[in-house]
Amino acid sequence: MSDEKRVIVVGGGLAGLAASVRIAEAGVPVDLFSMVPVKRSHSVCAQGGINACNEVARQQGYSEYQHFDETLIGGDFLNDQHPVLEMANWAPKIIDLLDRMGVPFNRTHEGFRDLRLFGGSLFKRTHFSGATTGQQLLYALDEQTRRFAAEGKINKMEFWEFLWPITEGEGADKRCVGIVAQDMRTMQIRSFRADAVVMATGGCGLVFGKSTNSIICTGGAASRCYQAGAWYGNPEMIQVHPTAIPGADKCRLMSESARGEGGRVWVPAKKGDTRKPKDIPENERYYILEERYPKYGNLVPRDIATREIFDVCVNEGMGVNGTNQVYLDLTHRDPEYLTEKLGGIMDIYEKFVGDDPRYTPMRIFPAVHYSMGGLWTTYTPGKYQPESPVGEHKPGNPIPVGNEPGLGLTIGAHNNAMTNISGLYAFGEVNFAYHGATRLGANALLSCIFDGLCNGVSVVNYVRDGVPAPASELSQSVYDRAAQIEQDKQDKLLASVGSGKGDHSLNPYVIANELGEEMNAASTVVKTGPRLEKCLAKLDELSERYSRCELGDGAMWTNQSLSFARSVGDMIILAEAIAKAGLLREESRGSHYRTDFPERDDEKFWKASVAKYNESTGKSDIEFMPVKAGLVKLRPRNYGKVDSGTNKEKIPPKQVAEANA
Amino acid sequence: MSDAEAHAYDADMRRANRRKAVDGRSVIFKIKRCDGPGKPSRWESFKVPVEEGANVISSLKWIAANPVTTEGSKTTPVVWDSGCLEEVCGACTMVINGRVRQSCSCLIDEYAPLEGDVITLEPMSKFPVIRDLWVDRDRLFSALTRVKAWVPIDGTYNMGAGPKESPEHQQMRYALSECMSCGCCLEACPQYTKVEDEEKWDTSFVGAHAISQARLFNEHGTGKQLKGERYDALSGPGGVSDCGNAQNCVKVCPKGIPLTESIGAVGRGTTIHAIKQFFQGKK
Q: What is the model's pTM?
């Protein structure tokens, strides 16, 4: 072991790669751990684009400040304000950098980067690369990582699974000094030393069973940090996308442009009607949105569409063939017109479902898409500290503050994006700071790369000046002990192979399926106190069954069942925090909608819910902590409220179709 | 039947199968299994009920929760590689009924429409098996290092925008940049053979995907600075001249990347590069 200081980055998506490149460039060697070849990380799934102020928008009255303001109102003011300001200010420069790395951004005739309109803004501020922006950005960073790896500055550890953060010291002195990880092929468990550890492990979609997330997005890594004492912020804030294609294996996004082009949402009027859709006459169909919202019809905003579709299936049991699906019908439109306007998405549907939506109605359902919540992080605010918070920013008005670096955050401060454990950082989706109660479309890619580039500098400074003693000088016993604990946990799981009577309900895959179904039903689109309490009871039951779970594979070589079974336990623990924070947050804010508390309650709940793992109960203690604000004044989130007859229509937000999402 | 005809026939066949798919049926998955490197392979069959919209991934998940063979013996869940399940990450590539493709977009209705129909799953044959359907594709990624598939930027500090580009040129690069390193083109290539010895990777055929990536970066305003080094890497043994022009690669590419065009362009580029070097007395 060399005595050079090193950094471990866990996760090779946009945040992890941006961090690795930035840290390695500064001369600090990086060990990059990923469960998959980093080029296959979940960031590839992002389609729509990446937001940034640009010269055209600027001349029309837009600004970085307005992007900042939009992100806060989008997040219903649950965001930490300072990092969001810094992120918006960095955004144009991040686009420039990605451009230099070779991302094939779509172009105008003159050869400039083209822009598209996205939800939450009246300005074109979204840069995109075909229909696979996330994939293209990830590839650009993957290529730079490969270059650094070829030069020996980044050491890629692919097919290694993070098992636990290693800490030393107690209380305020507690700091992260390495990790325990497992080679997914040889199953070797070992510890690794590091002077700082960056978690860039994404979201936790799999807690909800089938989501739009990749198969690796279990939230397992975040859950392990949480169990090791890292706080978890706003766990209940989970974004659900209204139109996804439910598959037997996962849900895939269906663009909202399908509704924009005349798609009609309906279910058979008679519950349990099993006829094929085209055999059901017009008067025996229930056009949910058209009947409930005569004015907007199928074009009601996202969150309303999501709730109504959910309601008709889950609460009224009227989904197609008793399933949680409704029809999204375009068959009344001319097939040629559909091909011309929606060719791409027609093909995706046909590829994965096997039906041609020009002739057969599509079947869709809302699906969990993104976790705004994540590991709690802190920071050092920058130079912009207004005497009192500023009100709503109107386009074209003078901006209260400029766009130079260092206004939102003090660049390079050791604690930027650091969790409550020194030396343990959280970047990207697993960082709770940026998106508050709902994320705006095309802000996710930005927050990932921003964390890596901006807060990567903090990591470098911390390992250079902030650690009391280099990890290479610590006693080996700290590392051996941590690895042994993981080994023991694994041995316990392995001992369950063939132990039982083949009780199906103890199969980890079965437990995971039930977890997903329960969390989806109780803790996503529409929540109520009693339902969440029932959910917590169900989690107790699952947790008890999990403690007796029986593994189906005892091999000590490439044992995926073992890895999966381990993550099921971690998912149940995270699910408990998600459900409990949802129960305690007795208000509706952003993606969190409680029918029993339909209004936003700033007095009580303009606060981050912070989950702290209680080792003695194995459950979360939830504390509400003030949102780090002070820059922008709280205001209602109504996007110009329109009265259309029912009190359910809180807002028609995101008026400009996140059609491309 | 030509390959192109065979391809069209395949697509028609799948569509026809979809139409005759029987509800509530079970199908047989015949899976080639192997416990690890150096271990013998064996076939195991599973009877799997077909749920609506089932694909190979959902069927393998069902088997994981019900790992019992058609003979009634309990076995271990099948090991396979997968990620996004949207055909953009490239992970879940395998050989299905004899043809290489992603398993996430492989619908059971298209391959096994009737009760008792059989679907065979095998690992890709050009890479070492890790376990069951999971293969080690490290060599595929190392080929990207071999051709320096990156833009050599000065650094990550703010230096303004990248080179301007016409929409046509962007479209061309975007098409090449959709390569997800899945390995279909390598599995289908007669020139690409399994090489387990890592030492020999840099002199074995690099494969269509890496040649196409070399072209992608040669086409970028800054990326082309490394053009000479890429051509050098593709001139020697295992370089572009090892291509036997079978053109299988382009037919199996799930993203429709114009791989043969890339091979042509890089082939011409390497030749010109070699001639220039000859006259400059470098070789």
A: 0.94
